[in-house]
Design a protein that fits this description.
The structure holds two protein chains of two kinds. By secondary structure, chain A is α/β, with parallel strands linked by helices. Chain A has 17 helices and twelve strands. Chain B has a domain of about 190 residues: MetI-like fold (Orthogonal Bundle). Chain B contains 13 helices and no strands.
């Protein structure tokens, strides 16, 4: 009874809205007896460490803020996150602070449910200057309308198997997508594939398409206009799907793979390159058969079919990826929320976070100290060259439209072909869906 | 009839108040809210103050029919629900007949039959997702490399998994029906020299018709509204062959943020469900003359 369940949720929310209609802002100073609710993503790689981190944050925060408690709640998946945010926003009550993925921040901004930070507010979180400028790109549509406070940075890079490349006489990963495909072909032999790609993932595919399009000069969304059916984007899809269908450098089973399965295949030593992973893959890979035999490199920045970056292209190494913290407008503990954010984005706590979870800092001071670390070179490099996805309230829908093209292309892909006509039809549909979503975004 | 009318004056209607209130809160209010939302231009830009969202009239309904894959989703949902029901009824009835008479180990067999039914849909979906992976057990057993979780075969994968998890409902209701058949009828038939086949055809199956018809309607509605299983099996965005109505409604709401359109879709699915539901309610009434 999905229909009835859906409306039951809405009706519950209606009741809640009327109950909590008049929430007000008050707080500061003494936090005794107050609880700050924080919603963050469940860390499936380090569950125990995350619990310990919650405890140490709570203890320290209580000490600094007159006994105020921090209560962490986690969400398991992006869908779970969305549902929780929607329920809370509709009901006007829920967590005080949310940790949001960067690409979801524009949608969250569009709801108008989160605090736009004034200069004064920025001051309370330690000043806008304490953050790496690039990490502020997806905080708001412009510098005066920002809701997101950068918390962690998770740029995407590519892992490669050093032994396999050395055995094939390849000294370093290619910096063009065509070059990468050529290297992957060279590295594909019985029992080994050039690339590990998760075609069945609900999020990975659009990041490839976006990167290749941006590099070729198509930002996908600009000034309220979508350009998903642009020839360079078609070329991006052909390249991405072609790795399996035409180049035969990807395991055919990858049509059903999620991101974790691609990492597992690379970890089992069955693939030479693993594009589109963040530093968090390190934990899995360090426990795998390729431990010590792999390294990270930035992904190619020259678009498919080109040997150099075109004049209007951007050398995007990754989407600007990571987490932003936002404060709910309905929160009655805003000053406490700012105090917590100030603490979590301080050099000291950013260091703890990096050392515990492997996620890069957004704090400029601490980020500087990491620049000298050779093992991190590629990731730090990618972080500085990452490009923000368009700041549009409709971006989530554009993303969905981009992934949908891959999902509906999988049957053909499984047959080993990229059907250009079918692809064009899917892109036309994606374009009209994206444009329809953007047309509503002007409000 | 006149007796009934005469008694009606003394029926203590006030006793319906607690149940009635509950029904209003649980069913009527949400239903009205859904109808209202379906008439609003409600999306990520307006849902924070949804009561003041712009009125959209029937635009959500026409939009859902014209611009979304609603009709396709209705077709997929109906198609697979009908097939699953047609497939599971004989299996459920056969299982009930087979375990009706006592035999050694009957308790165990009956318990095993219920396993698919008691497993949460999420677990069923996850297990079958692993089985149906390109390199999963299904392809290894079939010595094939077919794609089960996308493309044309995904429809049959959905039918298979839904049938696997829902036939015990038919079995349970059929078993209850069997147990309500008076043993004297069996005795009388045996005295008249009827064999098992004659008894099955002339006594058991006709008397089971009522319970099994109800079971079929309930199972059909269950399949039509199934969200968790297709969601877990295929994920979102759903492959086109398995884009069922509940998943489409979910995606519209929670990924596309078009709450108005989604509510309109929910109303459509309500109407869709009402058709067999009316049949079901009539059947219930006919059962108790």
């Amino acid at each position: 009874m999905i229909a009835r369940r859906g409306i039951a949720v809405l009706a519950g929310a209606v009741l809640l809205t009327s109950i909590t209609a008049c929430s007000s802002d008050s707080s500061s100073g003494d936090g005794a007896g107050k609880t700050l609710n924080v919603l963050v993503s469940a860390n499936s790689i380090y569950p125990q460490q995350q619990k310990d981190w919650f405890a140490s944050v709570s203890a320290k925060f209580a000490e600094q803020n007159g006994g105020a408690k921090v209560s962490f709640e986690t969400f398991a998946s992006p869908n779970d996150e969305l549902t929780k945010i929607q329920t809370a926003v509709l009901a006007g009550q829920g967590p005080d602070v949310y940790s949001l993925g960067t690409t979801f921040t524009p949608t969250a901004y569009a709801t108008g449910a989160f605090v736009e930070l004034s200069a004064d507010d920025w001051g309370k979180v330690g000043g806008r200057d304490r953050f790496l400028p690039s990490t502020l790109t997806l905080s708001g549509p412009d510098a005066t309308h920002e809701v997101g406070i950068p918390f962690t940075s998770r740029p995407f890079v590519m892992a490669y198997n050093k032994d396999m490349l050395a055995a094939a006489g390849i000294d370093k990963p290619a910096d063009t997508w065509d070059g990468l495909a050529a290297q992957a072909k060279q590295l594909t032999k019985p029992g080994q594939f050039g690339l590990a790609v998760a075609y069945g993932d609900g999020f990975d595919p659009w990041k490839f398409i976006w990167a290749m399009s941006v590099q070729a000069g198509n930002p996908l969304v600009a000034d309220g206009k979508a350009s998903l059916s642009d020839p360079v984007t078609l070329k991006a899809y052909q390249t991405y799907l072609g790795w399996l269908a035409n180049d035969k450098v990807v395991d055919p089973a990858a049509v059903g793979w999620k991101n974790a399965q691609a990492i597992a295949a690379f970890g089992a030593g069955k693939a030479a390159f693993l594009p589109m992973v963040s530093a968090t893959s390190k934990v899995t890979l360090d426990k795998s058969a390729v431990a010590g035999k792999y390294a990270y490199a930035i992904m190619p920045t020259v678009p498919p079919g080109q040997s150099a970056l075109p004049a209007n292209g951007k050398a995007a190494t990754s989407i600007l990826s990571g987490d932003n913290l936002v404060v709910a407008k309905y929160s009655k503990n805003k000053d406490l929320a700012y105090a917590l954010i100030k603490m979590l984005t301080s050099a000291e706590w950013q260091e703890t976070y990096y050392k515990t979870f492997g996620e890069l800092p957004t704090n400029a001071e601490y980020a500087k100290t990491l620049q000298g670390d050779a093992a991190l070179a590629a990731i730090v490099d990618s972080s500085s060259k990452a490009v923000g996805t368009p700041f549009s309230g409709a971006w989530s829908q554009v993303q969905l439209a981009l992934v949908n093209v891959v999902v509906q292309s999988v049957p053909n892909l499984a047959k080993g072909k990229v059907d250009d006509a079918a692809l064009q039809a899917l892109l036309a549909k994606a374009q009209s869906d994206a444009q329809a979503a953007l047309d509503k975004a002007k409000k | 009839m006149s007796q009934a009318t005469g008694r009606r004056g003394r029926i203590p209607w006030w006793m319906l108040v607690p149940g009635g209130l509950l029904m209003i809160v649980v069913i009527v209010v949400p239903l009205l809210a859904a109808v209202q939302i379906s008439l609003l231009d409600l999306d990520q830009y307006t849902f924070r103050e949804w009561l003041s969202a712009p009125f959209a009239g029937l635009a959500n309904y026409t939009g859902a029919l014209r611009d979304s894959s609603l009709l396709h989703a209705v077709w997929v949902s109906l198609g697979y629900s009908v097939i699953v029901t047609v497939v599971t009824v004989p299996i459920g009835v056969a299982a009930a007949v087979a375990t009706h008479n006592a035999f050694r180990g009957r308790g165990l067999v009956r318990s095993v039959f219920l396993i698919p039914y008691v497993l949460p849909a999420f677990v069923v979906g996850t297990i079958w997702r692993i089985i149906l992976q390109p390199q999963g057990i299904a392809n290894q057993l079939l010595h094939g490399d077919g794609l089960w979780l996308n493309g044309p075969r995904s429809f049959w994968a959905l039918v298979l998994v839904q049938a696997w998890s829902s036939w015990p409902l038919i079995y349970l209701l059929a078993l209850a029906g069997l147990q309500s058949i008076d043993p004297l009828l069996h005795e009388a038939a045996a005295l008249d020299g009827a064999g098992w086949w004659a008894k099955l055809r002339r006594i058991v199956l006709p008397l089971l018709r009522g319970p099994v018809a109800l079971a079929a309607v309930i199972a059909f509605l269950h399949d039509l509204n199934a969200f968790t299983l297709p969601f877990v099996l295929f994920g979102v965005p759903a492959p086109r062959d398995v884009e069922v109505l509940p998943v489409l409604t979910y995606v519209e709401s929670f990924q596309n943020f078009r709450f108005g359109v989604s509510a309109a879709m929910a109303i459509f699915s309500l109407i869709l469900v009402l058709v067999p539901l009316v049949g079901y309610l009539r059947a219930v009434r006919l059962e108790k003359p």
